[in-house]
């Protein structure tokens, strides 16, 4: 289930994973448990704990968090498509995949992947309401549908006939397997630290030498020995 990172210039990486989910379906249960396990594994995960009130638009903070996450885990549940907020999130997630090569992991939680892919069942019902509300903005409707179809065509996990604990462990390991190659090694980190320390050491040496160096054309000033130190990792 390897996913590649694109070659285009990308925003800074503030998070390893962005969690997209329908709060009323999975917040107090599956998604909370998944977040806890990801955190326990050392995966820096963005999970919106506030939610939006009815009528609010997705915030710029949330959009930025999506851009700055290496991967997104999308928990597609029964009422996911009924939320325009979730659909806007998903559209941004797909956009980040196309522009920056960000990875997407779909989790089909209590839903048939084909229903997501073709907007059937609960997803069809949701879009009937969206058509009524946003009928004059067919581009928005099309983007939402295309995003669902694209994500549903990706390899992911299904909750059907699976123990929830085992499912979460499988997701965490799958995410970690794809994330690990993106993380700097301990050796790389130590080399950066050593390079920074040597740079600071040079600055300190130069500053001390300048401070203690006798002023030119001052015969009364006696030279002062300079005591420098060296920092090594």
TrEMBL record:
Q: What is its EC number?
A: 3.2.2.6
The reply on keyword NAD is yes
Which SMART domains does this UniProt record tie to the protein? TIR
Catalytic activity field: NAD(+) + H2O = ADP-D-ribose + nicotinamide + H(+)
Please give the biological process terms from Gene Ontology that the record holds: signal transduction
Outline the extent of the TIR domain: 13-183
What the entry lists under Pfam families is as follows: TIR
Q: Which SUPFAM superfamilies match?
A: Toll/Interleukin receptor TIR domain
Q: Does the keyword Hydrolase apply?
A: yes
Q: Which InterPro entries match?
A: TIR_dom, Toll_tir_struct_dom_sf
Which Gene Ontology molecular-function terms are recorded?
Answer: NAD+ nucleosidase activity, cyclic ADP-ribose generating
Entry keywords, A to Z: Hydrolase, NAD
Q: What is this protein called?
A: ADP-ribosyl cyclase/cyclic ADP-ribose hydrolase
- Which species? Acacia crassicarpa
